[in-house]
């Protein structure tokens, strides 16, 4: 459903006003950061450097796969990892891939992972 922007001279319909009220009510009781932490439903944010390193790693995997003219299906067959999972990882949408998953994916494109402590 495409919403139309209202100009200042236009008024919203009653149904639009009701929808707007419902949306506002839905988010009226947002918890504070300290309440989120106390609830245990909050994952600590990832440091920007760590996030950027993971995004670079994901981009490298995709670039290497494409350089070898391998499709997602090819790598899925070689690694045993689902195509959609590989796609999510390559696009930085996988929240917390394991080292084992990354190693399987690297082997699927004929590479290996080297880990170093900095």
Q: Low-confidence stretches at least 5 residues in length (pLDDT < 50)? A: none
Q: Quick one: biggest sheet? A: none
Radius of gyration: 22 Å
Helix content: 55-70%
Number of helices: 6
Report how far the terminal alpha carbons are from each other: 50 Å
Overall geometric form? elongated
Mean pLDDT over the residues: 84
Number of strands: 0
Strand share of the residues? under 5%
Class by helix and strand content? mainly alpha
Order of helices and strands: HHHHHH
Compact summary:
The chain contains six helices and no strands. By secondary structure, the chain is mainly α.
What attributes does this structure have?
single chain, 118 residues, mainly alpha, elongated
Textual characterization of the structure:
The chain is mostly helical and 118 residues long. Helix content is 56%, strand content 0%. It has six helices and no strands. The chain has helices at residues 14-26, 33-39, 48-67, 72-79, 83-90, 99-108. Helix 4 (72-79) crosses helix 5 and helix 4 crosses helix 6. The longest helix has 20 residues, at 48-67. It starts with 13 loop residues before the first helix and ends in a 10-residue tail after the last helix.
Detail the topology: elements first, then pairings:
Blueprint: H1 14-26, H2 33-39, H3 48-67, H4 72-79, H5 83-90, H6 99-108
Helix pairs in contact: 4-5, 4-6
């Amino acid at each position: 459903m495409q919403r139309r922007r209202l100009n200042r001279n236009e008024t919203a319909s009653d149904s639009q006003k009701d929808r707007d009220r419902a949306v506002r009510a839905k988010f009226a009781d947002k918890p504070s950061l300290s309440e989120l932490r106390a609830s245990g439903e909050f994952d600590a944010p990832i440091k920007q450097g760590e996030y950027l390193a993971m995004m670079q790693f994901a981009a490298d995997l995709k670039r290497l796969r494409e350089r070898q003219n391998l499709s997602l299906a090819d790598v899925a067959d070689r690694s045993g990892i689902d195509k959609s999972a590989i796609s999510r990882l390559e696009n930085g949408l996988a929240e917390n891939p394991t080292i084992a998953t990354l190693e399987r994916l690297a082997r699927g494109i004929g590479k290996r992972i080297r880990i170093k402590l900095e």
